[in-house]
User: What shape does this take?
Amino acid sequence: RRGDILFYEGDMSTHLYLLLLGSVSVYKKRVSGANVILHTLREGEMVGEFANFGNLPYPGTAQFQENSEVLVIDFERFKTDLLLVYPEIGYAMIKCLIRKQKALMEIIHNEVALCAEQKIIKFLLENEAIFAKLKYFQIASLLNTAPETLSRLLSKLKKQKLIHIDEKRTLTIIERNSLEEKLKLKKIKRAL
Assistant: This one.
């Protein structure tokens, strides 16, 4: 069910999970209590394989974002009965791990190199089509920023006539080139 926990950060991994339907977010808790989303996985993706292959505890907590279906796989049997017998499965697993590593590197880059305005602009440029499907607090959580900061910066971009958001929350980027230039600037005043 939406909101249920698949596993908690620190639990030892014994099972591999294949998400058949729905979505699950993996997050870590900050000292402040806020969640930092590391990755949101969709149907067809594996969950927990990093911990399994490394024989490590799960690095984050996995929570369902909607009602979902999961195939629970005993990792030891999977390894001996399938992975060692069919190398193409191993190759697919490596590709999956690389995609997740790339997503994690993107999070690190965004946190280290971008200010709040740049993170929001980058999100808008990359997610124009799905913007209306997400609530502001979800977007703020994905960007690791406060909902108030998101709201203030969206208002600023609307006032500058760079974007338009209608009453159904459909996003239209009016000045894509101007937004891309703002994203490239090294020194953007940080939102207060």
